[in-house]
Amino acid sequence: MAYDNLAYKYDYREEEKPGRQRVKVDRKRVQKRAKKNEISYLSKIIYVFVLAASAIFMIAQFVNVNEAESRLAAKQEDYAFEESVTSQKSFELEQSVDLSKIEQEATGRLGMKRPESHQIVYVDVKQDDVTEKTSGEVEGLGNRIAGFFSSAIRNIIEFFSI
After folding, report:
1. From 13-17, 74-78, 141-145, 155-159, the region with the lowest mean pLDDT
2. Which of 17, 24, 30, 112 could form a disulfide bond with 106, CB atoms 3.0-4.6 angstroms apart?
3. d(CA 94, CA 96)
């Protein structure tokens, strides 16, 4: 038994169907249509110039944004440095203030004295110094809604204020 191809062997010629006639193609007409659909050389040049101009514009805008971001980063670094210097100076100032030196200066140079026991007056306040708040007042749904609206109004006023 031979291993042959079992597919039918057709003749690959196109058969004409009855009732249909072959239409002759006018080559000149086809070439004219192709020419109409073809983009002219001048329009291709214009497309290239428009594309190049838009690319140049986008690159220029990208450069401007990058320069602005680099200036911002430099200013933020300067701000952080100045902030650290300020905190260091405030710490040094707090360390330099010595209450015993201030008391010696006040008593020696300015002639001040500490108050005597009969000069001290204690005041008794009748009101309590305690505030009571319940979780319902703080975390209630009404307070959340009111807080949302008040923050929204505050943000709108802040946005439109000069």
Report:
1. 13-17
2. 112
3. 5
**Cβ within 8 Å of residue 144, ≥6 positions away:** none
Contact status, residue 62 vs residue 69, Cβ threshold 8 Å: no
Tell the residue number behind the tokens 């290239």, with chain if given. 48
C-alpha 67/C-alpha 59 separation (Å) is: 12
CA distances from 107 to 104, 130, 134, 150 (A): 5, 39, 51, 54
Rounded distance, CA 78 to CA 71, Å? Answer: 11
What pLDDT, on a 0 to 100 scale, did the predictor assign at position 123? 85
Q: Give the residue carrying structure tokens 């200066």.
A: 105
162, two tokens: 């000069």
Rounded average pLDDT over 88-93: 90
Q: Are 22 and 16 in contact (CB under 8 A)?
A: yes
What would the two tokens of residue 114 be? Answer: 């500490």
Which has more pLDDT, 19 or 128?
Answer: 128
Buried b (16+ CB within 10 A) or exposed e, 29-58: eeeeeeeeeeeeeeeeeeeeeeeeeeeeee
DSSP character string of 53-89: HHHHHHHHHHHHHHHHHHHHHHHHHHHHHHHHHHHHH
